[in-house]
Amino acid sequence: QVQLVESGGGLVQPGGSLRLSCVASGGTLEYYGVTWFRQVPGKEREGVSCIAAEGDTYYSDSVYGRFSVSRDNARNTVYLQMNNLRPEDTAVYYCSTDMWSALCGAKWATPRPHDVWGQGTPVTVSS
After folding, report:
1. Helix (H, G, I), strand (E, B) or coil at 75
2. DSSP strand E in the chain: where?
3. DSSP state of 27
4. What is the DSSP letter of 64?
5. Cβ atoms of residues 1 and 118 within 8 Å
6. Residues 50 and 64: beta-carbon distance below 8 Å
7. 86: CB partners within 8 A, 6+ apart
8. In this predicted structure, what is the pLDDT of residue 112?
9. Distance CA 93, CA 9 (A)
10. How far is the C-alpha of 25 from the C-alpha of 63, rounded, in Å?
11. Tens place of pLDDT for every residue, the chain, 127 residues?
12. CA distances, 1 to each of 20, 57, 114 (Å)
């Protein structure tokens, strides 16, 4: 089974930027859609963005226009560029894939029981 590792999180001031990475090992991501989620303690995971195998992208209303997802299949990596960060963006960010569908689908923002997850990378937006 593929393993995912997120990185790139940290402490950033409001209005700043971070670039998160999701690197896969033990398998390839190039055939599958990949979703970024975030989670605050005590709350359910929230879908942030999804990128399909062919490169089509989707975003939640809360991050639209500020975040950008991309993929580099040669590096087996999916990125999440986060700009104009706000305190409400503070969360642990995860990448996920079902290792089955090339598409994001209508329910891309809903976690699924069989999805593969990484350990997450924390992002804190604070002055």
Report:
1. helix
2. 3-7, 11-12, 18-25, 34-39, 46-51, 57-59, 67-72, 77-82, 91-97, 116-117, 121-125
3. S
4. T
5. no
6. no
7. 14, 125
8. 86
9. 8
10. 28
11. 899 999 999 999 999 999 999 999 999 999 999 999 999 999 999 999 999 999 999 999 999 999 999 999 999 999 999 999 999 999 999 999 988 899 999 999 998 887 899 999 999 999 9
12. 22, 25, 12
Other beta carbons less than 10 A from residue 77's beta carbon: 18
Residue 70: CB partners within 8 Å, gap ≥ 6?
Answer: 51, 57, 78, 79, 81
The pLDDT, as a whole number, for residue 114 is 79
Give which of 91, 102, 98, 114 is closest to 37, Cα–Cα: 91
Note the pLDDT of residue 1: 80
SS3 content of the chain, % helix, strand, coil (to 5): 5, 45, 50
Tokens representing 92? 């642990």
